[in-house]
Amino acid sequence: MCPNSSKLTGLIAATFTPLTPQGELNLALIGPYVDYLLEKQRVRSVFVNGTTGEGCSLTLEERKQLAEEWCRQGKGKLDQVIVHVGCLSVKDSQELARHAASVGADAIAAISPFFLKPSNAGVTDVSKGSGSAAPQLPLYYYHLPALTGVKLNVREVLQGIETQIPSFKGLKFSGVDLRDLGQCVSYCRPHGWSVLYGVDEQLLGALALGVCGAVGSTYNYVGHFMNKMLNAFEKGDLALAQDLQFKMQDVFTFANSLGFDLAMNKQVMSLWSGLPMGPPRLPLLPWPSDRTQDIVKKLQQEMGPCPK
């Protein structure tokens, strides 16, 4: 995938935020969560407080507590703990970035503000603000146009960004524009930066364009399966890689027919892993359990049982 071994590579789990039935943080679950990812899914890095983690629905204090606990529990076990610090307020992002550095995060990532949508230059300045608060940490831009509505050409944003943000080391690209993705890979490669893909069901296509790895919610429970796809691709067995990607697509096409969203995704994680992730945070609402059970049955049919 990536010729530069210093880059972020492989599968990175975008972690769910465990909550109690009353909707409060369940920090006691983070330790078992780390062990589960390593032992059952063979996933060695995490992306904390992002979309999957309902980061924008959490308070700053809750995000700090989660970042600190993931860093504490992951120390000496996980390869990378990447903390998402993006907020609508740049000052809040800076506060979270400083905190991430203080608790031992390996890197930070920041999504663009999305209520008042920035221009290309605005994205660069916002990223610069986040990075300046923790200059010792690698900074990754998080591109998620479907949810943020910030539908910029990322390749244009990258132009010359290294002169303004010395700590910039790449991006999480969660869009479906493969031309823009390819242009980002082309620009990032000479700099030794990482391009991580965030649309799980299209990962194989992104691998063909040269991405280094992937950040996604489904790698919390199909990481073991998707690692097989990565291995097949790296060995040049395209037919096997395609077959595995197709199976994954079949599962989530079925899930989408049932209304699959982040809340249902969290319920699938609970049922599949045995780790009680708890309810979603408002404005998301829980789904009837029978839909979750149907998705888990489909997962078992296509991918086999959860590894023991």
TrEMBL record:
This enzyme's EC code(s): 4.1.3.3
Annotated compartments: Cytoplasm
Keyword Cytoplasm in record: yes
Positions bound to pyruvate: 52, 215
A GO cellular component entry from the record: cytoplasm
Source organism, top-level taxon: Eukaryota
Keyword Cytoplasm: yes
Main location per the UniProt record: cytoplasm
Pfam families in the cross-refs: DHDPS
UniProt-annotated catalytic positions: 142 (proton donor/acceptor), 172 (schiff-base intermediate with substrate)
GO molecular function: N-acetylneuraminate lyase activity
Broad class of enzyme this protein falls into: lyase
Gene3D superfamilies per the UniProt record, alphabetical: Aldolase class I
Keywords for this protein: Carbohydrate metabolism, Cytoplasm, Lyase, Schiff base
Catalytically driven reaction(s): aceneuramate = aldehydo-N-acetyl-D-mannosamine + pyruvate
Pathway the protein acts in: Amino-sugar metabolism; N-acetylneuraminate degradation
Entry similarity comment: Belongs to the DapA family. NanA subfamily.
Subunit structure as annotated in this protein's UniProt entry: Homotetramer.
Protein name stated in the entry: N-acetylneuraminate lyase
Source organism: Silurus meridionalis (Southern catfish)
